[in-house]
């Protein structure tokens, strides 16, 4: 007699979490112990975020529901309204689907709606990338709230696992897995550099910077004025081409994206792409001279590509650092200086050949093995260790 499959519903609402989830989704799909489908919502279905639902469809993962919940307005109430709509439609889906487990990754605002809905419908939640610290953004509070409403935890490092224990979570619920998004870094086939440059209009033999700036949700110092001045000075003081990807759906993101689009239309040294998709984003990290901005991917992924990172502002304050990153304030002159510094041979000696502290390429394997051995019957009854 075969073992009953565990029905897994994996939520994704943004490109920033779909990339890291992709190796895990493939592992679920290949394992006969699990029956997995996706809950796709929010930014994936937004033209301003690149309609990244198309990438998911191309990858062929089963989609249980598409939830068009995102109100595209540049104010805080739009986020609350969008998440309220998400909760309404998700409640109906979970009632019909009744999965054994809902899986979420990270710290996006949508996750509060997702995990609280699952909580009230007595469906266990597994949270990936909990225990991390980003004191410069509201993501920090969201992440910790999600941890406390979850029943299984897959942090990326031992330090983050210990943070979860300090929050009162039981040790048997925690598996330090690593970052699943790193599982296919060394195996993913990417376009050649010539193909990549031709596709995105980056001149041959011209070094380029890969850049993503999100708004700072606690203080709005990453704004139109800063982005515009930074681009002007990078173009006048360096010879880099600038390849920007879009800011996310946080308040202030629309203004950043509108500034980047307008600038790219008038400045031939600036390219703006709403979403590169995972394959081309990895290609960009392979071929770029430097990463610049405040995206977590610079701190988590870039070391695996042996590329330096200039992390700007406080959005990632508190997150662990690989040796390839330099932190700098939201000050254009200091950013320019940091870009020049990370290009030096002196700095390269600090990170070339060093491992990535966020994972060794086996995260998905650890997650599936843990789910096969955990006590499913006692997941919902949580005890605090403090």
UniProtKB/TrEMBL annotation:
Residues 27-372 form the UDP-N-acetylglucosamine 2-epimerase domain. It comes from the Bacteria. It holds the Pfam family Epimerase_2. Gene3D superfamilies: Glycogen Phosphorylase B (3.40.50.2000). One of its GO terms (biological process) is UDP-N-acetylglucosamine metabolic process. Transmembrane segments: none annotated. This is UDP-N-acetyl-D-glucosamine 2-epimerase, UDP-hydrolysing. It comes from Fluviicola taffensis (strain DSM 16823 / NCIMB 13979 / RW262). The lineage of its organism: Bacteria, Pseudomonadati, Bacteroidota, Flavobacteriia, Flavobacteriales.
